[in-house]
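pipeline/complex-builder :: batch 7 item 3
reading input block
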Amino acid sequence: MNVLEERLQAELQGLEQQGLLRGLKSVDRIAGGRIRSGESRLLNLAGNDYLGIGSNQTLLDEFYSTLSADDRLGSYNPGSGSSRLMTGNHSGYEQLEQGLASLYGTEKALVFNSGYHCNVGLLPALAGKEDLILADKLCHASLIDGMRLSRARLIRYPHADYERLEGLLRKHTPSFRTVFIVTESIFSMDGDCADLSVLTELKQHYNAVLYLDEAHAVGVRGRQGRGLAEEQGKGAEVDLLVGTFGKAWAGQGAFVACSRILYDYLVNRVRSLIFTTGLPPVSIHWLDFLLPQIKEMERERHRLAELAHQLRQGLRGQGLVTGGNSQIVPVMIGDAARAVAAAGRLRSSGFQVNAVRPPTVPEGTSRLRLTLTAAMETEQLSALPALIARAIT
Ligand SMILES: Cc1ncc(COP(=O)(O)O)c(C=O)c1O
């Protein structure tokens, strides 16, 4: 072991002692919102396939039947061969971006390789030392990394504390070139929602720029599945609306819906767009194929909301502490080791549930995080609240 490995080993041992050690497990998806992991078949309450598209064999068959067998290079190609700014910008991209812009009613949409690429790239391109970023304390790691890379002054306001946000806007706006307000719409670990009426009012009053990450809301919220801004009637007032394709869209990538000027600027400046190979044609065709269908999936959206409501009621009935109002259902535990032990017991009972621990969530707020999909049946979840109550004690 060299000097570096000795240091790392000590750190890993520390993580293990605190119940914070993570590792990769091999998992295969099977039908009905379930996964196969080793010998076990488990109901997957730890995925993001919110509409059940990723386990819909019929839809996948239909998709592959739309691809031209005579054009394997164009349709099925698993690689794009280059950055989008070189020769990787194959024609499916244009169709997808136009479709997204028309869905969101914006001049343009720009597609990235992932939500991480998008969030880590946008703010460093748009903000610098003269600017201020005011971000919700619970923003996702990809947003935090983007904010840090931007070198702008960063202040994180307590989660959803808009009075505090207003105080910061009042105090600091005159001293900075541009002020950005950054938030998720559905918060990924708490499953609660931002209040976009307040945020858009504040951004207008203080002439700030609103950056909204709708990773967990696209596909799921709003009549056409455009996200929480659609549901709350605020889509037109969001300056940078980010959606990801890896969750409800059951694909890969992300987009920002924005003005033409932002689009032109971003194409010239976002390093995580410029210095990386574009997405494979087959991935983009999948998104093109899904775009008109997602709009119509109101039934799935209702089902998901209903399942989440039932689960929350069941958990509260067992005296458990939960929160939020989305398909992400946290069960608060506090101690990391207890959360891990509970997740292990649930796994033995046939449920894959994640124990979320620091640094993903603040110290002392470890929890079980249950995510639902419209592919699930009510009966599959009915025994769960009582099982969780037993697993925690
Ligand atoms: C709020 C939020 N933004 C961005 C991302 C990153 O998206 P992707 O998985 O496409 O990189 C995630 C992923 O978990 C997320 O929860």
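note: The first strand starts at residue 28 and ends at 30.
queue -> next item
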